[in-house]
Design goal:
- With 620 residues, the chain is of the alpha+beta class.
- It is built from 13 helices and 21 strands.
- It folds into four domains: 1-40; 54-223, Immunoglobulin-like; 277-517; 532-609.
- Helices cover 22% and strands 22% of the residues.
- The longest helix is centred in the N-terminal third of the chain and has 35 residues, at 5-39.
Length: 620
């Protein structure tokens, strides 16, 4: 078929027209798609659209740190409790609680636990940050006169961000000692800062609309959209995704034996999922003699324990009668018992069953202070070392502990408790011969050991776990392992906090006569996780990245990454990170420390910081 010139021109014009239309369409739709992508996120940079902007500064607890200096040195100044108050400054506005400390004009105590207080500040509307300073001021006597002078003992400053609800400076999220906590040279300070918030969930408006996508008019402390047992406000505070289900009943990133779900339950009592905590419930038996020491745990003894562990980044909380503890909480007076034994009968079980609430088992260790003699740590449920007994009677105090003054009585009681606490941390005789050893003239722990070795352990294991040193009035410490290569052990480098809630591979069999009879049978199979597999390559590739998610203060950790075999579609984690502290010969197991995603061999963990950084990138 032949076409004329005009027909060819028409086809050419039509061809050009089609090409131009196609190009135009591609450009148009590309620009439209680009515009849609750019419109996917629109920043709302307001910080307080529904409320009058204000700031609240809570001083939750202040603790003086001078107790060990006073109790372990010569003198009677331990009787003089510190007198102090605090000053709070926000953007140049200064206020103090001096003259308004509840029971008196100043705090006169070692520890203000249970005496929370706060200040409120009116803030300019839409102000983006505030400078917050907290000072602890101590009132000291001046010479021999009755005059006093105020001495500033601690100062911390943070910059509060009204967009994110977080602060930075002398304390910040992810720092080594814990968020909302400051470990100073002279004082510990627990505090909280939050802003006015329409729905009262303490999640700022800016975070709700720009990062989480939640409703700023609905209290997210009442919501759990992912159904993992913990509400949005807690997950937001500690950096978890509130819309993806976490295994909080097993997650334990600080490897203290207290799962995230348990940390959430203990939030009122300073629990931090990324900082190791030790909780102890203490009950007391009735005394049965007129001339006898009243079973008690002296305040100075408690503070000594708290301080020694604080020096190693571990927080100890002791309920010996908290005003708001649950039924069967600490401070109960138990029926008297004249005889206890840690092997024959384990009579401690009666108190453990009826006076130590089930809701606390697996969170708290249980301590009974009685008028019986001696002390021990004994498993009374399976083989978990979570129950302790410490005797505090006149005979023990005078003839065993050689304590003849009120001060020394307090020191040796603290020593006895710290010794038994050490067993709940994995420091037991079967893993090191020096543990619980004593001179042979008192009791021979290892009849077949040579005198050279036996005496070597007795002399060189300078630890409260050694009966030669347990009541040494100026020691009160575990060993650091520096006294002898063979006969000493680094206790602090080997403690394992979850010991109290796992079955250890050593039984105190009724037939055991000496420590030589202990048998360690370690049949721990490692991580048993049906439907998951260990990925060695992914573990090696991401080892350094993962280490920052593992909070172990005293040792390195072995890390393993597991991948789900058949990951279902939808938003669920298909990667798990496990860690086990390297504290051998102390027995330890793997803990779940993080969850995330893996796709095409790419490793990803949820990061609230990255989401905040992305949202802030749109700020002009």
């Amino acid at each position: 078929m032949k076409f004329g010139i005009n027909a060819k021109k028409i086809f050419a014009i039509l061809g050009v027209f089609v090409i131009l239309v196609t190009i135009f369409a591609l450009i148009f739709f590309r620009e439209e798609k680009k515009g849609e992508e750019e419109k996917e996120f629109i920043l709302d940079d307001r910080v307080s659209p529904y409320v009058n902007q204000g700031l609240f500064v809570e001083i939750l607890r202040v603790r003086n740190r001078d107790i060990l200096n006073r109790m372990l040195s010569f003198g009677e100044n331990w009787r003089e409790k510190p007198r102090f108050y605090y000053i709070v400054e926000v953007d140049g506005k200064v206020c103090s609680n001096k003259g308004n400390c509840g029971e008196s004009d100043l705090y006169e105590t070692w520890d203000t636990f249970g005496k929370e207080s706060m200040f409120t500040f009116d803030i300019e509307e839409e102000q983006k940050t505030s400078r917050v300073t907290i000072k602890i001021v101590e009132e000291n006597k001046k010479g021999i006169s009755l005059r006093t002078n105020d001495v500033e003992k601690e100062t911390l400053t943070v910059i509060y961000d009204y967009r994110t609800g977080r602060w930075s400076g002398d304390d910040n999220f992810g720092d080594k000692d814990g968020y909302g906590y400051y470990l100073g040279e002279n004082y510990e300070i627990w505090f909280n800062v939050y802003q006015s918030d329409y729905d009262n969930d303490e999640i700022p408006y800016w975070i709700e609309v720009n990062v989480l996508g939640t409703d700023p008019t609905v209290n997210d402390c009442l919501l759990d959209p992912d159904g993992d047992g913990i509400p949005t406000c807690w997950e937001w505070k500690w950096g978890y995704d509130p819309f993806t289900q976490n295994d909080h009943s097993n997650l334990d990133p600080d490897i203290d034996g207290i799962s995230n779900l348990e940390e959430y339950k203990m939030r009122k009592w300073f629990a931090n999922p990324f900082q190791p905590d030790i909780y102890i419930e203490v009950d007391f038996t009735e005394k049965n003699k007129i001339i006898e020491i009243e079973p008690t745990l002296y305040e100075e003894s408690k503070q000594m324990l708290i301080e020694r562990f604080a020096q190693h980044g571990i927080k100890v909380f002791i309920d010996d009668g908290w005003s708001d503890s649950p039924p069967n909480g600490g401070g109960e007076i138990l029926p008297h018992a004249s005889y206890f034994d840690d092997v024959l009968g384990k009579q401690l079980l009666q108190y453990y069953t009826h006076h130590f609430s089930d809701e606390r088992k697996g969170i708290f260790r249980y301590l009974v202070i009685s008028s019986c003699s001696g002390g021990f740590t004994s498993p009374v449920y399976f083989n978990k070392f979570d129950a302790m007994m410490v005797g505090n009677n006149l005979k023990d105090v005078l003839f065993t502990r050689l304590a003849f003054s009120p001060k020394s009585v307090r020191v040796v009681l603290a020593a006895a408790v710290m010794h038994e606490l050490g067993h709940t941390l994995g420091l037991v005789p079967a893993i090191f011969p020096g543990n619980d050893i004593m001179p042979r003239y008192i009791g021979d722990r290892y009849p077949n050991m040579s005198d050279e070795d036996y005496n070597g352990y007795v002399k060189n294991y300078v630890s409260i776990m050694n009966y030669r040193y347990i009541y040494k009035k100026d020691l009160f410490d575990y060993s650091d392992g520096s006294h002898h290569q063979k006969y000493d052990m680094d206790d602090w480098g080997h403690i394992y906090l979850p010991t109290f809630e796992i079955d250890i591979p050593i039984y105190e069999d009724v037939s055991i006569k000496t420590f030589e009879d202990f048998k360690i049978v370690d049949e721990y199979p490692g991580i048993v996780l049906k439907g998951w597999k260990f990925d060695e390559n992914l573990t090696k590739q991401n080892l350094e990245k993962i280490k920052k998610f593992v909070t172990v203060k005293n040792a390195d950790a072995d890390i393993q990454i597991f991948i789900k075999n058949n990951s279902s579609s939808g938003k669920e984690y298909n990667l798990r990170v496990y860690a086990k502290p390297k504290v051998e010969p102390v027995f330890a197991i793997y803990s779940l420390v993080a969850e995330g995603y893996v796709k095409d061999n790419n490793f990803e963990l949820y990061s609230l910081d990255e989401l905040i950084k992305y949202a802030k990138s749109f700020i002009e």
